Structures are given as C-alpha cells and as structure tokens.
C-alpha cells in the first residue's frame, strides 16, 4: 500500500472499530467533527445530485480546502472520512484516486445501504471534478 493509499486517522478508526455499535459511534463522531460548508455556500451549484439526503460539496477558498455538509448524521460521517483523504491530495491525485477502495478499506461499504452507496458515488464523482 503506497502512502497515498494508506488510511488516515478517521479511516483507521473506522477500520479498527469493534462491532456495529463502535463503528456507528465512530462514524457519528467523525460527522460531528466535520467543519460544515457555510449555509450561504449551500446552493444549486454546490448541491450533489443523486443523493437520498441533501449534500453540498465545494472548495472553500477562505479555508483552502474542500468542505461539505449534509443534514444526515451518517452521511456527514462519510463526508468527514472522504474529505480527510481528499484534502490530503493534490487536485490531480484526487482526480485519479480510488475513493471507493479507500472506503472499502475503512469498512464503510459494508455498513452503507445501497441507496446511500449510490449517493456516495455521486459525491465521489463531484470530489474528483472539483
């Protein structure tokens, strides 16, 4: 596994979670720690199409990083894991990175419903495009 593929702290915490309760608690705490995309930036241009729960994703020039928000606690946790990795990569690395594999290494794909998984694919597509 290259350094680009290695799990970051949130990903490691999820991968090492013992059981469903620990995994869910870890995911919820990750979502609570996510710095949210400010409400004025949550608009049609930053909305991610194809998600069951509303999701907004954008690059914040003020913060110098990607930021996101969803009212769903589970999705906020997933966004926190994705953004932790995405913000550690250059734009070119992000465009080529296998986020699905990363989420699999974090044990996330086995805990997401199919509809949430489809929405996360839309989030990943937008992440790679920003």
Low-confidence parts? none
Helical region count? Answer: 6
Shape: globular
Q: Give helix % range.
A: 40-55%
What string gives the helices and strands in order?
Answer: HHEEHHHH
Please compute the radius of gyration using only Cα atoms.
14 Å
User: How far is the first residue's CA from the last residue's CA?
Assistant: 26 Å
Determine the strand fraction and express it as a percent band: 5-15%
The profile of the biggest β sheet is: 2 strands, antiparallel
Strand order of the largest sheet: 1-2
- Average pLDDT number: 89
Secondary-structure-derived class: mainly alpha
Task: Find the count of extended strands (DSSP E, 2+ residues).
Answer: 2
Protein model, in words:
By secondary structure, the chain is mainly alpha-helical. Helices cover 50% and strands 8% of the residues. It contains 6 helices and 2 strands. Strands 1-2 form a two-stranded antiparallel ribbon. β1 and β2 form a beta hairpin. The protein starts with 8 loop residues before the first helix and ends with a helix.
Short summary:
With 130 residues, the protein is mainly alpha-helical. It has 6 helices and 2 strands.
């Amino acid at each position: 596994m290259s350094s680009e593929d290695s799990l970051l702290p949130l990903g490691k915490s999820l991968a090492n979670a013992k059981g469903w309760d620990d995994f869910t608690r870890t995911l919820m705490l990750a979502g609570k720690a996510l710095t949210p995309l400010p409400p004025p930036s949550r608009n049609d241009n930053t909305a991610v199409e194809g998600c069951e729960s509303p999701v907004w994703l954008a690059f914040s020039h003020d913060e110098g990083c990607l930021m996101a928000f969803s009212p769903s606690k589970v999705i906020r946790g997933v966004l926190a894991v994705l953004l932790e990795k995405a913000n550690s990569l250059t734009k070119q690395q992000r465009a080529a990175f296998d986020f699905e594999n990363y989420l699999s290494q974090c044990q996330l794909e086995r805990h997401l419903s199919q509809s949430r998984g489809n929405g996360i694919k839309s989030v990943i597509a937008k992440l790679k495009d920003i």
